[in-house]
Sequence to fold (200 residues):
Amino acid sequence: MITRLDVPKTEESKYWSITKKRLNSEFGLMALVSVTLSSSITYKLFGLSFFDRQLLDRGVDLRRGREYIHMTQIYVGEIESSDYLSFSPETDSDSILKSLKAHQMTEAYIIDDQQNLIGKLSIHDLLGDANYLDSLDREPLNLTITQPLTEALEVASEFVGESIPILEGEKLRGAINEGDLFKKILDIEDSLRSDQPANT
Fold:
């Protein structure tokens, strides 16, 4: 029978034992940090896979979900336009003011005989004695028919007013407001839900 004798640890052996544990703990922590950091960098560069990165380079970001991908494929020209008023520059201010009041609107668009947008008019521009053509906003915030819905939402987030003109080149093709954009988003969400298979 072998009897094990417990040899008392010296101060030096205790020191090296503690040091070894600390080193093991520090090495483990360094390894964990390295793995976490490399995973974070890899995800930022490639997403979940290299295939995701290839799609992202082509403008398809799977990380934003199906709704976002679908919205990038919907263009402003496909969104139903709100009601809006447009007038020729020869229209007198009293006629424009009466029409605005009758339709309960505060903005209108001045266009030429080719439907080109000359400027945007506010009801406040009609209240003074000055010629309203001198007060037109000739470079109003606008959208084009070829912009995707995602870009339209970004533009609308900075918009203050009643409606945003939709242009095809210089021609006025319609006008939309924030409500029209949100309605389109809800339509997309409803469409995607209806496409999902029912849970069994």
